[in-house]
Write a structure and sequence with these properties.
Helix content is about 25%, strand content about 20%. By secondary structure, it is α+β, with helices and mostly antiparallel strands. Strand 1 and strand 2 form a beta hairpin. The structure holds adenosine monophosphate.
Amino acid sequence: MFKETIFSKIIRREIYADIIYQDNLVTAFRDIAPKTPTHVLIVPNILIPTINDVQITHEQELGRMIIVAAKVAKKEGIAEDGYRLIINCNDHGGQEIYHIHMHLIGGQRLGPIF
Ligand code: AMP
């Protein structure tokens, strides 16, 4: 059994977050400390701690995360200019919250990572 994080409470709406989209598989909410003008987190409703824990049975959730990212980007008005999707994994990847989340960042030109 995986240990729940604050994101499970946000998904169940037990603690506040600015949720901008939710369906049966995923939830999208604004990052509490935005690094860019648009910074949204897209998470599966079920707890999967890291990308290393992904199973074939999670295909629907993972696919929906991308579909919702594109939908949110369009709604935020950043689809045409472009944006970046990031999933951090474990310590070296910079992961702080152990419930998979996709960062959707944009609203400005992003510098190269490499
Ligand atoms: P990561 O480093 O990839 O695990 O990213 C965790 C992200 O979660 C950071 O960008 C935090 O600012 C964000 N975060 C942490 N707590 C909350 C919260 N209560 N509501 C919204 N975003 C949060």
